[in-house]
UniProtKB/TrEMBL annotation:
<dbReference type="InterPro" id="IPR041835">
    <property type="entry name" value="RabL2"/>
</dbReference>
<dbReference type="GO" id="GO:0005525">
    <property type="term" value="F:GTP binding"/>
</dbReference>
<keyword id="KW-0547">Nucleotide-binding</keyword>
<dbReference type="Pfam" id="PF00071">
    <property type="entry name" value="Ras"/>
</dbReference>
<dbReference type="GO" id="GO:0007018">
    <property type="term" value="P:microtubule-based movement"/>
</dbReference>
<dbReference type="GO" id="GO:0005929">
    <property type="term" value="C:cilium"/>
</dbReference>
<feature type="region of interest" description="Disordered">
    <location>
        <begin position="197"/>
        <end position="220"/>
    </location>
</feature>
<dbReference type="GO" id="GO:0060271">
    <property type="term" value="P:cilium assembly"/>
</dbReference>
<dbReference type="InterPro" id="IPR027417">
    <property type="entry name" value="P-loop_NTPase"/>
</dbReference>
<dbReference type="GO" id="GO:0003924">
    <property type="term" value="F:GTPase activity"/>
</dbReference>
<comment type="similarity">
    <text>Belongs to the small GTPase superfamily. Rab family.</text>
</comment>
<dbReference type="InterPro" id="IPR005225">
    <property type="entry name" value="Small_GTP-bd"/>
</dbReference>
<protein>
    <recommendedName>
        <fullName>Rab-like protein 2A</fullName>
    </recommendedName>
</protein>
<dbReference type="InterPro" id="IPR001806">
    <property type="entry name" value="Small_GTPase"/>
</dbReference>
<keyword id="KW-0342">GTP-binding</keyword>
Length: 220
């Protein structure tokens, strides 16, 4: 909208039929940037320094003959301070909230992220993503009930091997679009689909099994 200097990317905007903004939330090092990179470049570089500047990824896709421009926002490492600048949330249409299945603390912090999200964006679709399942596939049998309690769609993913990454981002785009169009149809459809989802069926295991290596940082 605010075209200062018009770059090639800005020009795309004017050709797009629809434009949505999708934000990513979650503790540091849960894999937010890797997930974006995985989806956008279908590649994965195992080592990278934390993000220190806000990164905006532009993605164009065609859905039902319409050109959709998606702005994916990745954080500036502000999450270390447990709070994002309000402009991060401004006019966003969907949120991908990520935790690391190998570090329980990142799961425990989800309610804080969710609370802040809802202060700024009470209604936007929010997808909960359990990342790094490649490190130990058994985690998909543990119960992570936060999403269920809040009535949010939940996905087990891996930025490392790509499991479910495309699914999450495609669903996020669809939900962002339907939010913008003020319809809950797609959201309902996804919730129904996820209820029958294979991995989800094993979720009623005990809370104990949720214990992982709490506080253990990823080795660099
Ligand atoms: N095993 C495994 N490691 C991953 C996966 N995704 C990310 N990582 C690793 O986790 C670390 C953090 O990933 P980032 O994508 O930088 O995490 P981030 O959430 O963007 O972190 P900040 O930018 O600091 O907020 C990196 O060392 C990645 O290589 C995954 O799916 N599996
Ligand atoms: Mg990052």
């Amino acid at each position: 909208m605010d075209a200062g200097g018009i770059s090639d990317l800005d020009l795309e905007k004017y050709d797009a039929d629809e434009q949505v903004k999708i934000i990513c939330l979650g503790d540091s090092a849960v894999g937010k940037s890797k997930l974006m990179e995985r989806f956008l470049m279908d590649g994965y570089r195992p080592q990278q320094l934390s993000t220190y500047a806000l990164t905006l990824y532009k993605y164009t896709t065609t859905i039902n003959g319409q050109t959709i421009l998606v702005d994916f926002w990745d954080t500036a490492g502000q999450e270390r301070f447990r709070s994002m600048h309000p402009s991060y949330y401004h006019k966003s249409h969907a949120c991908i909230m990520v935790f690391d299945v190998q570090r329980k603390i990142t799961y425990k912090n989800l309610p804080n992220w969710y609370k802040e999200l809802r202060e700024y964006r009470p209604e936007i679709p929010c997808l909960v993503v359990a990342n790094k399942i490649d490190a130990d596939i058994k985690v998909t049998q543990k119960s992570f009930n936060f999403a269920k309690k809040q009535g949010l769609p939940f996905y087990f993913v891996s930025a490392a091997d790509g499991t479910n990454v495309v699914k999450v981002f495609k669903d996020a785009i669809q939900m962002a679009l339907s939010y913008k169009k003020n319809s809950n149809d797609f959201m309902d459809e996804v919730m129904r689909e996820l209820e029958n989802f294979d991995l989800e069926s094993k979720e009623e295991t005990s809370d104990k099994e949720e214990e992982t290596q709490e506080g253990k940082p990823d080795s660099a």
